[in-house]
């Protein structure tokens, strides 16, 4: 089995029948790891599919293989790629990485100015995040949106989070800030302003030439005057 056996696409309403299976596998995976994730209902996952805010992986025979969705916080200033899950039947073929790359690309398209963050205990996810440009950060650099932190209540480690004043927990926080990754673009004159812009540049160039000629003449005069007297 290889990665080419799967289609990794943006989920739509036609994939809603997979929602219940996806949610069940998320819960089972959390139990197996001995950690926790924010529990989601099939309706919640279905809504993400309808909104075009999730990615699904399907085997060529139509079997559900993996899933991940987008959440937004602080009025779209922060984005999280949540609920990454791979069907146990199809693990060890690189699906998690491929899905993560696809949902990251979708997040950048939909929210180009947003900071993308995640909380995870999984070393594999941390590695993928690092490849995408995420960096480890303190919890203070994440969203302060209370709705996000309410999602941690269903985690088995919630008491640890609260005992530390929500400053840290067992999860590692990682953040991708587009402002740190992309240098500001130089402003380009609009179509109607190009001629005017060129005229200004040409005028300045000629002005500098005249100044240089005058300075040159002034230097020659000074040299002649000082040598003579």
Automatic annotation (TrEMBL):
InterPro entries: Acyl_CoA_acyltransferase. It comes from Solitalea agri. This is GNAT family N-acetyltransferase. Gene3D superfamilies: 3.40.630.30.
